[in-house]
Amino acid sequence: MRVSQLLIPTLREDPGEAEVVSHRLMMRAGMIRRVAAGIYTYLPLGLRVIRKIECIIREEMDRAGAQEVLMPIASPAELWRETGRWDFYGKELLRFKDRHEREFCLGPTHEEVITDLIRREVRSYRQLPLNCYQIQTKFRDEIRPRFGLMRGREFIMKDAYSFDQDEEAAKLSYRKMYDAYVRIFTRCGLTFRPVEADTGLIGGISSHEFMVLAETGEETIVYAEGGTYAANIERAELRLPTETSDEPFRPLRKVPTPGLRTVEEVCAFLKTTPRRLAKTLLFTTPKETVAVLIRGDHEANVVKIKKLLGCQDLELASPETVSAVTGAPVGFAGPIGLRRTRLVADHAVRVMRNIVVGGNEGDTHYVDANCDRDFKVETFGDLRSAMAGDPSPHGDGTLSVARGIEVGHVFMLGTKYSQAMKATYLDPQGNEQFAVMGCYGIGVGRTAAAAIEQNHDAKGIIWPVPIAPFLLHLLPLSPSSQVSQAARNVYEALVAAGVEVLWDDRDERAGVKFNDADLIGVPYQLIIGEKGLAQGAVELKERKTGAVTRLPPAEVLERVKERVEQAQT
Ligand code: ATP
Ligand code: MG
How many CB atoms neighbour CB 17 within 10 A? Predict the structure, then answer.
């Protein structure tokens, strides 16, 4: 295709709103434009990349025995009420009413809709296993849409749903999807790692996330160095603390800590360490306020706390709530004399002795406080996040921490949805059984963004060949008729051979063309200059390495094909 005829509005400057490199480069390369927060238009280059990824996904899903369907974007509230998610899902679910005042939502995921289909259409065990997938636009009213396509509100997802006769068969379906995901992300040219994951809003028995390793990733993963364990930090379980203390119990004392609110300030003032302080964090759920005790050097894990409390919406309490509940301003909450809330604590707190806690009074803390003697904890649980150096729960060494972008997620759902919606089949004995389900998602736009996070340099994007918008960028550097003619000949020969060529036929300076080509990041550039051509040569340049090969125009096709074959093996 010709650059002069395509809408590729490249930008010289970084757009202000873009915080991560993939977002900046997608904007600068003219791939996407923002319509509203988290809502984008895909321009021709962006869409070509999306389509490439979709094509790889389709091939691998079909190969794994899944079949493509397309479900609607709008779905009726009744289906969501059957599973309880109309209430449970919270504000991410965008709800609306039609002209008859009937309630609907924009699908953030499609378990309800597919289960409704399957309960109507599947009667017998003979129709199972079944795996249906779609590549479709989802809507989630994310609190913080950001990073371009990485966390949009409207985004393209591949979602698949498997239905099996029993747990064993469901595991096999899960395994097939897991393997398909490994092939998909490998084919997309990504460096990734599957990790154990929390089952979140969708619920279910077990799940893995596919993480593209990148510094800018929103997810934190922990893994056993040299071992097999790898998990999202939201989920990574911790072993119960084994340390004991033979320190004698000291009497409780109240001490003034004027204006000292943070763990660091209080510890510095009292000449102690965060390991000997327990912070009291107040959270609100739709039903109540809960105090959570966490060791000073540990980080509270909101996902684990939600799980313990059995609630979906959990937020740090507002300063007003904190002072209403504790009688003290923020920074001085503590477990002693706390009457108006439940008190839960991380396991690590149970084994602490003679600790510092907030005083529930302005400018005051307690020292030498002890659990059971000075305050009662209602429930202990695993409520903190794993840290580097913690022992791996599998016993295979200590944990390290890395950042990742979650591009895919596979879940074993069990019968959660089939029971709620009565999706049954008749087994060979004629008994009614619930179908055992799995669900499997891939963020298509997020995968494109993740590919850029891993493949770029100061000049721009460096597309992996399989998902590049074009394979070759043709750059005639002069308007002379010989150069134009040579470019046209090469273009026609390559296109006839099925090579995707972007031809910069604009009347622009060489510098402008080079900059745009490096920014857009097509894997090969073919440079045709007047001088070289007079000597019978053009230059084939690899975007990734900058390596240049001089060759006669007639050899271009053959060389390009060789390179592509090499790239794909
Ligand atoms: P996250 O924790 O990032 O919000 P999630 O657990 O909500 O993700 P799933 O419900 O498992 O995501 O959705 C499947 C896939 O869809 C994710 O692995 C991700 O690639 C993609 N995805 C989810 N939310 C978004 C979003 N807001 N923008 C773009 N892609 C998304
Ligand atoms: Mg989410």
Answer: 12
